[in-house]
Amino acid sequence: MKKYAVKVSWSLDFVIGTYLPRRLQEKSSRQGSEVLDTSLCLGSGRSIKAACNLNGEILLEYEREALVCEILIPRIFKDLLILGQPNHFRTIAHAQSLFTVKDILQGLAKKLLLAIEQSKMGKKTSYKRLKGSQSLRQRLVLSTLASTPVLIDDIRADDTMPGLRPHEISLLRLLERICDDCVVEINETGTELEYKPGIVMGGRNLVHDCGVSRSIGYFLEPLILVGLFAKKPISIRLRGITNDPKDPSVDTFRSTTLPLLKRFGVPSEGLELKIESRGSPPDGGGEVILTVPIVDRLTAVRWLDEGMVKRIRGVSFSTRVSSQFENSMIHAARGIFNRLLPDVHIFTDHRAGPQAGKSPGYGISLVAETTSGGFISVDTAVSYAQGEVDEIEYDEKRELMPPDNVGEQIASCLLEEIAKGGVVDSTHQGLLFLLCALSEPDVSKVRVGKLSPYGIETLRNIFDFLDIRFDIMPDPSTGTVILRCVGCGYKNLSRKLS
């Protein structure tokens, strides 16, 4: 502080007199060397090092060979001899403490926790910025699996009813239910969403009300994908609409989606969808129980053989209407299939009473099984509801369509899906691509028909979140498309080890 003309400061000067320890004197006399020059710079490690100053006594280290205690008042030098002292050593001073080791560790732990909290408060979370409401369901799933916080703005900002819809908010609540430390923030208008994913915990005996804005099928795909990589297997009861014309029905998930998962190494044990009761729009009242096992990782697939259709299965349902509606749909559909294939069985599922839900309706779900193990499915539903709920709009002609026409139409839709080619139908393209991208770091190769808009959007989202790019190779001879990718090797780090 002298250079700043400050006379009084926290710095004190000590002058060490000329003193040569007895040990070095003996060494000097034996070697006939000169006396050690004590004017060398202190603390340099070459001659004299001041180790510590305590209560007017200075501990000095000479040439890393001798220890001397200098008492300042009066000036006295004492040679320190330690039993077993080596010829050369290094002196490190430690201040004495009245605290136990346990107290020190607890103090350090408190300081560490405080530093973490301050870091969280001071450091802002880095969000991936997205716009619009398209593919919101897939974005939330990929954000959860990739542990990437997202900030989505401009959600239907120009619509008459801007912001998130009730079914999208319900999906966010579902993710909060099965995840730990998940943070969801929505602005007042609902046009901006901040989603910070947490750890997927899973659990049993969970219950979630999906509402009546969309059917249960809207929630099943994200729930299955996230549930496969949970800490514990998921068993959840979902309430709402089981069949509607907009989303895949619960029958399609049971007959087509679950077998598709098994091809990627998902075990059959613990993978089940049980329909407790049916529910049609607008009031729902349906109930299903979904159980999803956990996996360590998914296996890659090479699935190019479409195969030939060997049989057709299906199920028709009716709630709060005559069972004759089902017979009419089945008869109309079999009138088309029986001319092409002998093995056709469509089962009936007539519900009455509490198992029929709260609204009348009827529908049918069909699936074609191929010789290569593929499943091509279609489904439809007709509701007598005259009122409309939120954004679900049902064409009046479609609602009043006779059962015979429903059967003929659904049979024609299945034949169109089969004619497109591919190992899955257009509805399951997105799920197939996601499973390939999440599989082990090996080449997955699949064949699909014409790429659907949903499938194309899925490929974009996969590249944005997982940085996985698919090679797309059209096959002009069959009119199909072959897609190839190397999986990201996603591993279930939350899995509970036994």
From TrEMBL:
Any one of the GO BP annotations: endonucleolytic cleavage of tricistronic rRNA transcript (SSU-rRNA, 5.8S rRNA, LSU-rRNA)
Primary residence: nucleus
GO molecular function: RNA endonuclease activity
Lineage of source species: Eukaryota, Viridiplantae, Streptophyta, Embryophyta, Tracheophyta
Domain RNA 3'-terminal phosphate cyclase insert: 304-419
The entry's keywords: Nucleus, Ribosome biogenesis
GO cellular component terms given for this protein: nucleolus
Presence of the UniProt keyword Nucleus in the record: yes
InterPro entries: RNA3'-term_phos_cycl_insert, RNA3'_phos_cyclase_dom, RNA3'_phos_cyclase_dom_sf, RNA3'_term_phos_cyc, RNA3'_term_phos_cyc_type_2, RNA3'_term_phos_cycl-like_CS, RNA3'P_cycl/enolpyr_Trfase_a/b, RPTC_insert
Residue ranges occupied by any RNA 3'-terminal phosphate cyclase domain in the UniProt entry: 130-472
Family note: Belongs to the RNA 3'-terminal cyclase family. Type 2 subfamily.
Highest taxon listed in the record's lineage: Eukaryota
Protein name: RNA 3'-terminal phosphate cyclase-like protein
Subcellular localization(s) per the UniProt record: Nucleus, Nucleolus
